[in-house]
Amino acid sequence: MTLSATTGPDVGEPPDPEPNDLRSWVAATRKALEAITDEAAVEAELLVRHATGLDRAGIYANPHWGLTSEQSLMLRELTRRRLHREPLPYILGEWHFCGLPFRVSPAVMIPRSETETLVEESLAWRRHRREEDAGPVTIVDVGTGSGCIAITLATKLPADNVLALDVSPEALTVARENAERLRVVDRMRLLESDLLSAVSGPADLIVANLPYIPGAEVPSLQPEVRLHEPQIALGGGPDGLSLIRRLLAQARSLLSPKGAIMLEINPPQSATLPSEALAIFPGADVRIVRDLAGLDRVVVIDLLGRPAA
Questions:
Q1: Residues 6 or more apart from 110 whose CB is under 8 A from it?
Q2: Span 227-254, mean pLDDT?
């Protein structure tokens, strides 16, 4: 997750454009949202599409199409919610991750593009493992939230065993709904678990995007995050590594001899976490992977070692 800090009160009022056509609504909604986001143009279009049921082509092919009174009221309400800093994905009820649509709600963190780095590294590890061992592997996603990581891996690796864990029953409900929608629920298991406590057998790959924000920094996060996303998914203790350390300690007895662990991290944690990982897994290949923004994002702990993705 990339969670920048920002402050400031709610601003602006929902639009009420004249004339009542698509082009005017897109422009008025964009203008209202410019006070709170640098992505006002994109967000305005998405809100208009959500209220009208039109796709992008439909909006631009029919700029003078008039909204019904119900659609106008809905769009004003959607914009009001956004101006009160409710995250756009919660308003829309869905967000894309690795090209797949995931239902989201305040019970789960919103999937973020930097987490796709974790999926890409997992798939690269799996390709390398397949070259040496054609059999299925067991993949455990700890703190699955919406299920975006586990479900993406289950979609792309249908022969493997995927286990999705979360301590929150509400999050698991959302993850199960996503697994059913994306038709992988029969190929994975979802369990309520405090980290790895519900796992008894060996795991070949453990992936996790756990809370990693230092506790003192949580109050300064942007309003969309600190006011709306689940608090249980944010703070990771004094230095943000409390849950990650617990996970590594539990994984020591569960990881298979050819296994690997991949963790999303806060970039500053790349200075200390590799040495802590090596203390628990001596001789492992430990490396840091950067996301598309060039920030240290994923720590890979591979007991065998392999080429970079």
A1: 87, 89, 90, 95, 104, 229
A2: 95
